[in-house]
């Protein structure tokens, strides 16, 4: 008996060889066939991802903006219509509760911001594993800001199309010029006749689009997108290749690079904190922690073929100087890579370290992040 | 080798036992079911010849894109031969898991341990349950 939540695309995954696993309480496809093939399909053509497990929260009311201004490490009051901003939500101690995308409705003043999917002027997309925690966290504060949140996660689906051919594929099915969207902006559009909120965002290091639509319409839209993606040389992609893609792009993942015990600057996410002239939950603690020497997130490239995994110690001689937070085989680079937290004197690019792989020491070199950056010509 | 005539451990290793004079030698590999579950293999750390092993001891590690997995000794004995070809040809696991994809041979010191292994039918039943 499974008590796992299912996305509207669950039947498709099961019928198409998806190997289903428990991911943050959701039954999700980890792969359909070869992880490496799905990874390369995304880098070379296009990958299609069911990301409906991620939390989608609509924020209505006059105080919607002020509520987020109080909760997020970055300013939202200066966001233009349609803009999307990567931000963190912290506790009072400055620990990271989650990393989120904050959306401002694309058409200011229009009902639902021009999209029938939303009512409020602001929305959040949050990690699946943190959704319940964040809803409680926000609910505790919504009244004082005359705002109200609505969890749209199960009423809607979310599909990502990522890769050099992604924009062309979705544009060919869209009623509006979504290819004109700048990175981190979104708009309401019909895709294959389905009302969607389309955003130029993603989690793979590739250019691409993420589409939110109503749950009942998701399976048919997915089928059409899948046919177009396959015709372009791409494929559906499961969580495993999503993880190797995001690791190469050095995007932090909650539970690995991010946790409530890590401050934003430790994670190398100082850009996602705006302290100037603002107060938000955690701002005081973050401001005070700024001067201390602390472990820093770095990239490691390893010699050999064995992959470092989360929790493996990073060594300098006999001393442990850090710990791996995410690691694995990089299909693009064809060698093992890892993100790790290391001590303040160990993070310079070129530093030679070792990783302890279950008793075996392998040489590792600190490299610049990200490991992979897409060619600018594919933009 | 015919998979229906092999013995299997709960941890998905297969065993083929041959008489070699007074000794028994077990050829060991991992089942097609296990290979399919691992997928995208990138590395194997083979055991060394001469290494003594005890049942359920991790004596070999196999690394996939997803994770590192242990391979457990299905019998007690000593590793007497290793399939060195595997290191550079991990595709042998998926192409021929019960033949060219064998991992090593173990000279058995305690034949009684073989009784703990499953026959093909019992193993198939276990896999069907695991796949649920």
Q: What is the helical fraction of chain B, as a range of percent?
A: 10-25%
Rg of chain A, Å, rounded: 21 Å
Q: Helix count of chain A, per DSSP?
A: 8
The CATH topology of chain B corresponds to: OB fold (Dihydrolipoamide Acetyltransferase, E2P)
Could you spell the SSE succession of chain B in H and E letters? Answer: EEEHEEEEEHEH
Q: In order across it, which strands form the biggest sheet of chain A?
A: 10-11-12-9-3-13
CATH architecture of one domain in chain A: 2-Layer Sandwich
User: How is the main sheet of chain A built?
Assistant: 6 strands, mixed
Biggest interface in this structure? A-B, 16 and 11 residues
Low-confidence stretches of chain A: none
- β content of chain B, as a range? 35-45%
The helix/strand class of chain B is alpha+beta
Question: What does it look like?
Answer:
The complex is a heterodimer of chains A (379) and B (132). With 379 residues, chain A is α+β, with helices and mostly antiparallel strands. Helices cover 19% and strands 31% of the residues of chain A. In chain A, the strands form four sheets. In chain A, strands 10-11-12-9-3-13 form a six-stranded mixed beta sheet. In chain A, strands 14-17-16-15-18-19 form a six-stranded antiparallel beta barrel. In chain A, a hairpin with a 2-residue loop joins strand 18 (352-357) and strand 19. The longest helix of chain A is centred in the middle third of the chain and has 14 residues, at 218-231. Chain A is globular and about 60 Å long. Chain B has a single domain, classed as OB fold (Dihydrolipoamide Acetyltransferase, E2P) (Beta Barrel). Chain B has helices spanning 32-38, 91-95, 120-130; strands at residues 7-8, 13-20, 23-30, 41-45, 52-53, 58-64, 68-72, 77-82, 104-108. In chain B, the strands form two sheets. Chain B has a six-stranded antiparallel beta sheet. A three-stranded antiparallel beta sheet of chain B has the order 4-6-7, with no helix packed on it. In chain B, strand 6 (58-64) and strand 7 form a beta hairpin. The model of chain B has no long low-confidence stretch (mean pLDDT 94). Chains A and B meet through loops of A and strand 4 of B.
């Amino acid at each position: 008996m499974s008590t796992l939540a299912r996305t509207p695309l669950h039947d498709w995954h099961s019928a198409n060889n998806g190997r289903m696993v428990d991911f943050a309480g959701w039954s999700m496809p980890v792969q359909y066939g070869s992880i490496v093939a799905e990874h390369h399909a995304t880098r070379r053509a296009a990958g299609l991802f069911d990301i409906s497990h991620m939390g989608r929260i609509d924020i209505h009311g006059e105080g919607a903006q002020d509520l987020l201004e109080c909760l997020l490490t970055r300013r939202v009051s200066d966001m233009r219509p349609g803009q999307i901003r990567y931000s963190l939500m912290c506790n009072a101690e400055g620990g990271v509760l989650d990393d989120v995308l904050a959306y401002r409705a694309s058409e200011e003043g229009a009902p639902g911001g021009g999209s029938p999917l939303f009512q409020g002027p602001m929305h959040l997309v949050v990690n699946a594993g943190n959704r319940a925690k964040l809803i409680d966290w926000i609910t505790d504060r919504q009244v004082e800001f005359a705002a109200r949140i609505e969890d749209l996660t199960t009423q809607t689906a979310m599909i990502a199309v990522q890769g050099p051919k992604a924009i062309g594929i979705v544009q060919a099915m869209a009623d509006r010029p979504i290819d004109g969207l700048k990175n981190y902006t979104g708009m309401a559009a019909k895709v294959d006749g389905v009302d969607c909120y389309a955003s130029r965002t993603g989690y793979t290091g590739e250019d691409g689009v993420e589409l939110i639509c109503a749950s009942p319409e998701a399976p048919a839209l997915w089928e059409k997108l899948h046919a177009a993606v396959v015709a372009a040389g791409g494929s559906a992609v499961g969580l495993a290749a999503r993880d190797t893609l995001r690791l190469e792009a050095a995007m932090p993942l909650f539970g690995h690079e991010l946790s409530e015990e890590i401050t934003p600057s430790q994670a190398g996410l100082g850009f996602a904190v705006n302290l100037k002239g603002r107060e938000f939950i955690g701002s005081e603690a973050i401001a005070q922690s700024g001067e201390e020497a602390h472990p820093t997130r770095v990239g490691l490239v390893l010699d050999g073929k064995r992959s470092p995994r989360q929790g493996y110690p990073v060594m300098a001689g006999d001393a442990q100087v850090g710990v791996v937070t995410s690691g694995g085989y990089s299909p693009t680079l064809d060698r093992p890579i890892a993100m790790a937290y290391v001590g303040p004197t160990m993070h310079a690019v070129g530093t030679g370290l070792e990783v302890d792989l279950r008793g075996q020491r392998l040489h590792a070199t600190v490299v610049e992040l990200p490991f992979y950056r897409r060619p600018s010509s594919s933009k | 080798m015919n998979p229906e005539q092999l013995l299997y451990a709960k941890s998905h290793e297969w065993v083929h036992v041959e008489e070699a004079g007074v000794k028994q030698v077990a050829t060991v590999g991992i089942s097609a079911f296990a290979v399919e579950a691992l997928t995208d293999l990138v590395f194997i750390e083979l055991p060394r010849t001469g290494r003594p092993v005890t049942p359920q001891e991790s004596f070999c590690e196999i690394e996939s894109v997803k994770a590192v997995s242990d391979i457990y000794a299905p019998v007690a004995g000593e590793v007497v031969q290793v399939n060195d070809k595997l290191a550079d040809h991990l595709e042998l696991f998926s192409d021929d898991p019960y033949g060219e994809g064998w991992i090593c041979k173990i000279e058995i010191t305690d034949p009684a341990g073989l009784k703990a292994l499953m026959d093909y039918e019992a193993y198939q039943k276990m896999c069907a349950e695991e796949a649920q």
